[in-house]
Amino acid sequence: MERPVPPLPQEHPSIVALCLSDNTGRFLVQKRPPGRTWAGFWEFPGGKVQPGELPEKALRREAEEELGIRVGDLSLFCRQAGPAPGGWLSIAFYAADAFEGHPHPRDGQSLAWCRPDELPLRSWLPADQPLVDALAAGPWCGLTPRLDHPDPDRIAAGFTGAIAAGVGFFVIRPAPGKSWTSSEMEPVRVWARRRRVRVAFERPPGSADRGDLHLSAEAARPLVLRPVPPRIRLGVSCHDPWEIGQATRLGADYAFLGPVRETPTHPGDPGLGWERWAAWTGGAGCPVYAIGGLGPDDLGQVRRAGGFGVAAIRAFWNE
């Protein structure tokens, strides 16, 4: 029997938001003024798309009206669903790193420039939180090979070069048939806290462990509800549009999509290619990392295709 397709984000968003960065890598954020819905919470600047208005044009208009600036090239970062009275809003986040003028508040809001690691220290609108977490973790994600045991010394050695290069997010993966207890995983989390990086473990969705969870496509397929509370970060591996839709329906905070290129583990499979990858990423409701035969130098191509970052094993793991 054919699986029903979960709902996807709207092609034409109702809200657009700007992830504007300066030449030091800081992001411009704003605090909602008193008297507004969600007053006192932080968000990325933006606003509503008017009927018949293109999203990019709406965002340029909002940037001039709210911040007094003219932004340069825009690239789609991700789409997200956000709560609203009586339903949900579809939000499109765009990245830009060039602008004319000096940003200043023109709508009663407060402005601040924040380093990525400073973003999670503020209270954010729920719809912005997954992108905040992704920005704080960084655009690169290292994956382990399949491990029999989560040995923190082996993991630390394998990712030493990646951490030195600025990678701040790692997914630890067990060998087929292996399932680790919380006590077995805790030493790796202690290592991660000391190195100020973030780790997620690929594990069964029903396990008692309460750390960040990464689901394989197979594990995510039968689920109908998000398997962890919002405070626990959820990721899903995806290989086709249905799986991207399932990640969206489960409220995933990020997704992997690939393989983009042929890999040694899948010889003869040419991968999705960038055209298909970009088309499928456009249906995601969370930041998407490209995976499969890629490395750090591919980040520019990922961003041009509407993705967030690069996930890889061989590019980041040395053993």
- Tell me the span between the first and last alpha carbons: 44 Å
Class computed from helices, strands and strand pairing: alpha/beta
* CATH topology call of the largest domain: TIM Barrel
Superfamily at the CATH H level of the largest domain? Answer: Aldolase class I
Q: How many E strands? A: 17
| Number of helical elements | 9
Radius of gyration: 20 Å
Approximately what portion of the residues adopt beta-strand conformation?
15-25%
Please list the strands of the largest sheet in the order they lie side by side.
Answer: 10-11-12-13-14-15-16-17
What is the helix content? 10-25%
Order of helices and strands: EEEEHEEEEEHEHHEHEEHEHEHEHE
CATH architecture of the largest domain: Alpha-Beta Barrel
Which residue ranges are poorly predicted, with pLDDT under 50 across at least 5 consecutive positions?
1-7
Give a quick account of the main beta sheet: strands, pairing sense, barrel closure. Answer: 8 strands, parallel, barrel
